[in-house]
Amino acid sequence: MKKTPWWLLLPLLWLGWSGCAKPTSLDYLGIRNVKVLSMGWKESTVAVDVEYFNPNRYPLTMKKAEVNVFVNDKYLGKSTFDSTLKIPKQDTFLVPVKLTIDMATVGIGFLQNLSSEEVLLRLEGNAKIGRSGIFINYPINYTRKQKLSF
User: Fold this and answer.
1) Of 140 and 105, which is predicted with more confidence?
2) Which of 43, 68, 95, 119 could share a disulfide with 50, CB 3.0–4.6 Å?
3) CB burial class (10 A; 0-12, 13-18, 19+) of residue 126?
4) How far apart are CA 76 and CA 70, in angstroms?
5) Which residue from 64, 68, 28 is spatially nearest to 49, judged by alpha carbons?
């Protein structure tokens, strides 16, 4: 039986090491397509597409995400994403999000004022992102002024 030279194993070690590297943070680009799906006295539902850029040289998968949304430092609601989303490498992508708003805490007047001015949008939460069956909890912390158009 012939022995394999040790230096032939170096590429395999390098591939294994680079395959386990933590992904680079996704770049938040903004929100698009804000739609009010239902408006009620107790609860309202809003759908938005959140746009991100994946700077990594490999595709990723997002399994789950939970994000608290604040507008002008007031709690607007919580969004939960329970689907599986394939994220392309070095490209932009949209995450479809449904946000349930408790109208008792927010009020209808607050929602009507959102379309008329630039607001301070803050997102706090986490998502399960990974590849090749290995997932990590990825923190989501973002604050930016943005104009919302319905």
Assistant:
1) 140
2) 95
3) middle
4) 5
5) 28
In this structure, what token pair is assigned to residue 25? 């943070």
108 or 103, which is more confident: 103
Strand partners for 47? 35, 98
Task: Please give the radius of gyration of the chain, using alpha carbons only, rounded to the nearest integer.
Answer: 20
Q: How far, in Å, are 27, 76, 104 from residue 44 at the CA level? A: 29, 11, 10
In which residue are the tokens 């959140």 written? 50
Q: Using DSSP, state whether 12 is helix, strand or coil.
A: helix
- Residue 72, SS3 per DSSP: coil
Please tell me the pTM assigned to this model.
0.71
Q: Can you tell me the distance from the alpha carbon of 46 to that of 116, in angstroms, rounded to the nearest whole number?
A: 17
Nearest to 42 by CA among 103, 95, 97, 98: 103
E strand or H helix that includes residue 111: helix 108-114
Residues whose CB is less than 8 angstroms from the CB of residue 87 and which lie 6 or more positions away in sequence, other chains included: 26, 52, 54, 59, 60, 61, 62, 93, 129
